Amino acid sequence: MAEFLITDDSLVSLKDKIVIVTGCSSGIGLSTIQLLLSLGAFVIGSDLHEPPEGAVSSAQFTFHNANVAEWQDLLGLFKKAIELHGRVDHVFSNAGIGPLANYVSGIELDGNGDPKEPTSLVLDVNLKGAINTATLGVHYIRQNPNGGSIVINISSTGLQRFRAVDYGVSKHGALGLMRGLHAALTAQDVPVRVNGVAPSWTATGVVQKQLFDQFGIYTQPPGAVARAAANLMADESRRGHLIHIDHEIYKEVDEALLLPTYNTLPHKDTVSEDESMGRMAERMKAQAGKE
Fold it and tell me: Per UniProt, which keywords does this protein have (predicted)?
């Protein structure tokens, strides 16, 4: 795996960049906006409530109340950035909530004794919210002559078996979102990079450090993840990368580990699914041109 360090010098290019951060009022999001502002970026942050008093004191920060599960709220967030700064350079899709549904032993019954549909709130926030944030990010960033990037908070739970099923599904989906968008953006030559962070246990509102300490479970500071997100924005060579962060150690795992492992599986004569899609798209495009 490709372990690497993140130096302060590698982040200086974020000065004067316009960055949107969802879930900005606590944990990883708050640490990220604080880091970006210290680097001289302009940040538009969204959440259901403002950051704690005194946590952010910069004229280059704007808070916009938004629920990422609502399309119109997200649209308003991006339009606010355009209104203030005329462009969007980078987006950090970070907003998320902890597990809620129990598909095994927590099934509720209605008055007729029939099972009720489980809540989809975690999927609405963590996955649909990420999809819609990224979709709007592509729409607005591609209008920049120099392009920009989207970073998705995927979580290390998107790489493993995880018994909190709704949360695990949302993060596996977020990994699929990052990978699929990278393939689509590359195929269509769109000047938007997409990458992801996959942090292990990190002290946030969802992961309460004091509780985890009681069980002897290490939680890394949210600033460690903020540096990874900033690095993915600043380093223009990073495309389709997934940075795993554990004990403040950074490793790129998709290009270095996951994809090479998968590539050992197919038969030597198998055409990959993505290449197959590309061939079919080219054929359909050619046929349409003849009509």
Answer: NADP, Oxidoreductase
Beta-carbon neighbour count of residue 227 at 10 Å?
23
pTM of the model as a whole: 0.94
Task: Summarize pLDDT for 111-145 with one digit per residue, the tens.
Answer: 999 999 999 999 999 999 999 999 999 999 999 99
pLDDT tens digits, residue range 27-81?
999 999 999 999 999 999 999 999 999 999 899 999 999 999 999 999 999 999 9
Task: Specify whether the CB–CB gap between 30 and 53 falls below 8 A.
Answer: no
Angle (nearest 5°) at CA 131 between 46 and 237: 90
Domains of the chain: 2-252 (3.40.50.720)
254-270 pLDDT tens trace? 999 999 999 999 999 99
Mention every residue, 6+ apart, whose C-beta is less than 8 A from residue 277. none
- Nearest in space to 75 (alpha carbons), one of 137, 152, 143, 33: 137
Determine the Cα–Cα distance for residues 86 and 231; give it in Å rounded to an integer.
23
Q: How far apart are CA 154 and CA 194, in angstroms?
A: 12
What does the DSSP assignment read for 180-245? HHHHHHHHTT-SEEEEEEEE-SB-SSSS-HHHHHHTT---B-HHHHHHHHHHHHH-TT-SS-EEEE
Query: Which residue(s) pair with 18 in the sheet?
Result: 42
How many Å separate Cα 130 from the centre of its chain? 6
